[in-house]
Write a structure and sequence with these properties.
Elements (H helix, E strand, L loop, with lengths): L21 E5 L3 E5 L10 H17 L6 E6 L6 H13 L3 E6 L6 H16 L8 E3 L8 H15 L1
Parallel strand pairs: 3-4, 4-5
Antiparallel strand pairs: 1-2
Length: about 160
């Protein structure tokens, strides 16, 4: 969605197909990195835990990491693993933004209830919510917000 090249990152109807760290050089200036998801995938719990540990290590050891976009499925109620990961990012001092995906998949009221539920859960431990962007690849929403967010990060870095 962000690059405008739909086939850049491979997707599948089965979750959990990303198994490697994929780097995409953008404008010869910065990298967009696609990591395996820690959430729903048709893999063993042991494999899922290993992925999560590797992702966490990657985030903590990357000196040049500027931001993480945590993708949250807005079409389903808040998931414990997502809340835990958001809290881990904050507690670890990893810069990040929440991107709610699939905002077109549910009726608006249900989707809004899911997002509100996520925010409510976060407010139990957060004084201030992290940045949040709503997106849909079907409706092409959120792309400009993500690009503006990236632009602001890049400007701060220079």
């Amino acid at each position: 969605m962000v690059t405008g090249k739909p086939k850049l990152a491979l997707t599948s109807s089965k979750p959990g197909k990303t198994r490697n760290i994929n780097h995409f050089l953008i404008n010869e200036k910065w990298f967009l990195v696609d990591l395996p998801g820690y959430g729903y995938a048709q893999i063993s719990h042991l494999q899922r835990d290993l992925w999560l540990k590797n992702i966490q290590t990657y985030f903590l050891k990357r000196d040049n990491l500027m931001n993480v976009f945590q993708l949250i499925d807005a079409s389903i109620p808040p998931q414990k693993k997502d809340i835990e990961f958001t809290n881990w990012l904050g507690a670890s001092g990893v810069p990040f933004c929440l991107v709610f995906t699939k905002t077109d998949k549910e009726k608006t009221m249900k989707m809004q209830a899911n997002i509100k539920g996520y925010k409510t859960e976060l407010m139990k431990t957060w004084a201030e919510l992290p940045n949040i962007i709503l997106s849909s690849t079907e409706k092409k929403t959120g792309k400009e917000e993500v690009l503006d967010y990236i632009d602001s990060i890049l400007k701060k870095a220079n």
